[in-house]
Give the backbone structure.
Amino acid sequence: MSRFAPIIALLLLCPPAFGQRAETLLSADSVTVGDRFELTVLVGHDGTREIVFPHQFLPDSLQTSTVFTLGDFEILGVSRMGQRSYNGSGRIDSVVYEATTFALDTARVAGVPVGLVNGPDTLTALTPPAFLRIGSLVPEDATELKDLAPLAEFERAWWPWIVGFLALAAVLYGLWRWRRRGQDEEEATVEPATPAIPPFEEAVRRLASLQQADLSDPAVIKPFYVELTDILRTYVGKRTHVPALESTTRELLSRLKGSRSGKVLPEDVIREIDQILTHSDLVKFADLRPILEQTRSMVDGTRAVIEQTETVYRDEERRREAARLQAEEAARYAPPAATEEV
């Protein structure tokens, strides 16, 4: 553990007022495919919270047949867990996972999610990324490439000719039917396009459908969060005219704050959008296993954010319309400009 001493010392020197700090440590700098190694997660905090490590987000995650993964690392089991105090009231909680990887060249995890629970409140933190080099399986004494094996001979296949003949026959038959209709056939009446659904109504309908999802199946969780973020991003993009679907979470928040929407939307609404998208990103990309009740409440939280945004924009539209009508009324009764006599 001497190679981890600087990081552990940094955690020990952090005063409780600093908040919390999480780190991910690997027991090796490089491994070959399938080798086992240790992945350690350390969380230093002020001692007022209980730590929930990744395997504890979903109970019995290591006892099921489904592989529990953190990024490119496959978790085989928990070697040990522990905690120690520092600076009087501070505490360091840790867990050591036995892990392996089947990645090529480099294995990585964008960040390991950990929960800090204080009564009914749960704060989700993410450790810095961790990388592990994957060694080559080519023998060190290999000096040259081996010759390619001779090509295997197969009997000539006739099915491409048969498929081509059938395709040609289908094209000729289509041309024949087209000519029989005649060139003077009346054009089909074009039905009027269906009016577009307003962004708010579209979002509410999709959220109502998403709320019926069966969350008892773990395989449904990620698709659930993909649909949830798509609903929120689609509504925000249409309502604020910001490219929400093409932006990362950081880019979207930056564009919202830097555009006219940043002057219209209150800071608490933008902050709630940030929390919903950040939590969803952890589930989709960092393999966070959320608590079932928390997942169900995400629909209500997203609906509340959309309703707040819609209320703000409707109030803004009414204010602008009133200002426009007032300006027109003032122009209508304004005295004509005096003309200069020649």
Q: What stands out?
A: The first strand starts at residue 21 and ends at 26. Residues 292-332 form the longest helix (41 residues). Residues 10-18, 186-190 have pLDDT under 50 and may be disordered. The chain has two domains: 2-134, 199-330.
